[in-house]
Structures are given as C-alpha cells and as structure tokens.
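Consider today's protein:

***
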Amino acid sequence: MRLAIASDQTSCEAKEHLAARLLSKGHEVTDVAPPVQGSGRSDYAELVALAVLRHDAERGILISGRAVGAAVVANRIPGIRAALCADPHSAHIGSMQEGMNVLVLALHTTQEGKANDIVDAYLGATLAAVDVVGGLPPRRLQRVFAHIRENIGDDLPVAELARLVGVSQYYFSKLFKMSTGTTPHQYVMRQRVERAQECLRETSTALADIAHEVGFETQSHFTSVFRRLVGVTPYTYRQMHSGAATDAAAADPQKSAAAA
C-alpha cells in the first residue's frame, strides 16, 4: 500500500521506527515532511492530507505529541477523514465504517508499544468510501492536480486552471479552496518547491536552472519561497542531501559538468 507519513519534531524517532517497519512489510512509505536542520515542518499534517487527497498515497499516518491538533488540521481538507486512535479496534472500525483515511497516533501511544497493532488494524481494514460535499468534483480536481504536476515548469495562471474544468476563474478559486484548504496559487507554489526538492536531492543541476525548471522567474524568488516553506535555503537543503546528489553526478558526469 502507498502510505504518506509525517510527524512533529518530538515524534521523529517514533516515525522513523514505524516507517522502517512498514517498509519491511512491503508497503511504499513516503515521509512527506522530513525534518530539516533539527526542525520539523509545521504543516506536516496538511502535507499528509494533501498527499492522500491527490492520490499520491492511498492512506496517511500522523504521529504527534499534539495529536488532537494534527487531526484537526488534517480534517480541514475536504475528503479527508482523520482520527486519533488509541486502540486497534477503533482504528479498524474507523477505516471500515467511517472511511478514516488518515490515522493519527499520539506519541505516548507509540512509546507504550501499541502503535504496531493499531497501524496493522488500520491498514488491514477495507476503507469505506468517503462522500465529498462541496468543492470541485473528484475527477475534475484530479485533472487539475495532474495538469499542475505535468506542467509545473510553465506559467500556471488561475484562468488556465479554471478553463480546464469549465468554470469561471472566481468560481474555480472558491471551489479549489473548498476542496484543498488552500488557494490555487499557494498549491502551485508548494508543488514547485516539492519538485525542486527532488532535483536538489537527486541531481547536481545549478540552482538557477532548477528555479527555471520548476517555474520560478528568478532565483531570488525561488529561494524566498523555498525557505518559507522548507525552513532552509535551496543551497543548504542540497548540502544536507549532498550524498544523493554526488551519486547522481557520478552516474552522469556529463550532466554534472554542464550544471557546474
């Protein structure tokens, strides 16, 4: 199963242990909000919810020292059913009868060793269908997500996205926020930064070229948005993941020379 996982800063170790166990059981696990320089992303719950909403993951898992708050944030995204569960029975019933697609675990629960049983019950239950009321119809919303993903390096005005689903620009912006909890512009900026993070981890492409590749007009704007969302500059982020970039450069020295 494709899973999105994240935690607050206090729960990083518990998250890593759980992610390792899930990987060993054959699941595909993505940490959508890895900590940077000792600090966690404040929007970790929202990132998991959005990953599930756009079908990047089939289900989500949040671990937090402030679990109720994490559930509240995730539930702001229409189509997401997040709940704090402290026992396997609640996790199983929540998934099977209530359509709970994001499981929230309190840090003290994982410390008591209950997390594995709770997560197994959650993943072992067939997920009930979730009816979404308001916002863009699910198929149209996924069409918008796909268009943004496939054209992330291009200009993506709201008017273009509105035409894609056949509604006015004003109405589209209203419906999109109802569906995602964020504005079209904010969503596009996040997607540009996520694509940039992949490039920074996996290639040695120059920062200015990455900025252009993911749709920023200037490197300074790229740096400003990246630092606001991730917490560090693109240069610092690359330094933190220099091993991955070095491996990519070794595999393709010609590309590395061109980037330099």
Confidence is low (pLDDT under 50) at residues 244-260.
